[in-house]
């Protein structure tokens, strides 16, 4: 069967001067509303900016070797040439598109696990996420490695390959997105909060997510609300993106916020740096009819452009969440959607819905309060 999730769009996303209507698949409707709200807010303040820093993908061959590591290391340049030649048939198409294998590095973990070494292979996979390509190359290498090592060392040492697979940690497939404007242009906020106060409160909220792991997790979840929904809408692998983002958030040894805020002079700047391994060709991207529609909606972007759109959506989502948290609180914006969901669940008519919106405009919403309100409008209890 199929399990359906809502498909929404967040319009008005100005990114590097282009306007996008961003497709978002998520069960949390407020996520789309928040992203759209943030996009509209930044539209008149220079929009979102983004740049792709790097696009390197990685794969690993895990193996055991009983000889000394320096002998293995000395063999690597020749092994590299041989592996590149022996995989030329698999890499031909990718090389034609400007991608392929970039490097093969030896990593020595024998001090942590007896005889354990690794070949770390770096790839450029152009507009594809590249999982199948990478795994096919790695498996070819894995099948060839023992023969090469045996021949080189005349069977003096033992070699055993254990497994090979791409790594979902791709810190060098990195994109940066940011927004910035003079503090005075931030405007004023609900509750009489001035632009200066907002900048300070916002900055502190982001600092807390850099300091405290409990807040960092929720903060990054907010970023991933935006990222995942576009990743899903475009048929990409959201589990890979999530796993990678969390590892990247821990790269200092402490799990921290993926976004950062600075207030320098009179300029407010809010930025996000996140590794994203995405594709716009191959995999589900061209098979899933709705993923195809998403790409059409985005103007059939390259993988690099998609990385920037996804990062900007994550940043927009994060901005919207923190803006709510440090001004009105998160429930304020959620209430109307919460109310709509409860009214639908209780089978309210259009007229009853309109009455309920007026009635609850300044009240707390709960299932029992909405039920009581509807019952007061009807003669038959719900
Ligand atoms: C809810 O899905 C996401 C937030 O909790 C994110 C945050 O707290 O920053 C609102």
Largest sheet: 4 strands, antiparallel
User: How many distinct beta strands?
Assistant: 10
Strand residues, percent: 15-25%
Shape: elongated
**Mean pLDDT level:** 95
Strand order of the largest sheet: 3-8-10-9
Q: What is bound: which ligands?
A: (R)-mevalonate
Q: Report how far apart the termini are.
A: 32 Å
User: Helicity range of the residues?
Assistant: 40-55%
Radius of gyration, whole Å: 26 Å
Helix/strand class: alpha+beta
Unreliable spans? none
- Enumerate how many helices there are, as a single number: 12
SSE topology string = EEHEEHHEEHEEHHHEEHHHHH
What can you tell me about this protein's structure?
With 382 residues, the chain is α+β, with helices and mostly antiparallel strands. Helices cover 48% and strands 21% of the residues. The chain has twelve helices and ten strands. The chain has a four-stranded antiparallel beta sheet with strand order 3-8-10-9. A four-stranded antiparallel beta sheet has the order 5-6-4-7. The structure holds (R)-mevalonate (MEV). (R)-mevalonate is lined by residues 28, 218-219, 221-222, 225, 321-322, 325, 330.
Keywords:
10 strands; alpha+beta; 4-stranded antiparallel beta sheet; 382 residues
Provide a quick synopsis of the model:
With 382 residues, this protein is of the alpha+beta class. Helices cover 48% and strands 21% of the residues.
């Amino acid at each position: 069967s199929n399990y359906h999730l809502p498909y929404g769009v967040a319009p008005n996303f100005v990114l590097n001067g282009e306007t996008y209507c961003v497709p978002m698949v998520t069960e949390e409707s407020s996520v789309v509303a928040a992203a759209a709200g943030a996009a509209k807010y930044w539209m008149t303040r220079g929009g979102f900016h983004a740049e792709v820093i790097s696009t390197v993908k990685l794969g690993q061959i895990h193996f055991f070797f009983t000889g000394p590591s320096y002998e293995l290391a000395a063999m690597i340049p020749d092994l590299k040439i041989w592996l590149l030649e022996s995989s030329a048939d698999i890499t031909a198409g990718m090389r034609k598109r400007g991608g392929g294998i970039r490097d093969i590095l030896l990593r020595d973990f024998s001090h942590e696990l007896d005889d354990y070494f690794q070949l770390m292979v770096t790839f450029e996979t152009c507009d594809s996420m590249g999982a199948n390509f990478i795994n096919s190359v790695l498996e070819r290498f894995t099948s060839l490695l023992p023969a090469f090592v045996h021949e080189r060392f005349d069977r003096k040492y033992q070699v055993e390959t254990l497994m090979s697979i791409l790594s979902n940690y791709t810190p060098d497939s990195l994109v940066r997105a940011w927004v910035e404007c003079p503090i005075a242009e931030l405007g004023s906020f609900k509750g009489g909060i001035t632009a200066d106060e907002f900048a300070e409160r916002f900055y502190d909220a982001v600092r807390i997510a850099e300091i405290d792991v409990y807040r960092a997790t929720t903060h990054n979840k907010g970023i991933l609300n935006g990222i995942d929904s576009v990743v899903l809408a475009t048929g990409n692998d959201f589990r890979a993106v999530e796993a990678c983002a969390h590892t990247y958030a821990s790269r200092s040894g402490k799990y921290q916020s993926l976004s950062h805020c600075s207030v320098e002079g009179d300029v407010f700047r809010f930025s996000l740096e996140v590794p994203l391994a995405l594709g716009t060709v191959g995999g589900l991207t061209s098979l899933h009819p709705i993923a195809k529609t998403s790409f059409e909606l985005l103007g059939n972007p390259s993988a690099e452009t998609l990385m920037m759109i996804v990062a900007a959506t994550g940043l927009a989502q994060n901005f919207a969440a923190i803006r709510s948290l440090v001004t009105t609180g998160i429930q304020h914006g959620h209430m109307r959607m919460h109310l709509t969901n409860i009214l639908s669940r209780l089978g309210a008519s259009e007229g009853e819905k309109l009455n309920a919106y007026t009635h609850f405009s300044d009240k707390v919403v709960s299932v029992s309060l909405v039920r009581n309100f509807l019952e007061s409008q009807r003669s038959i209890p719900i």
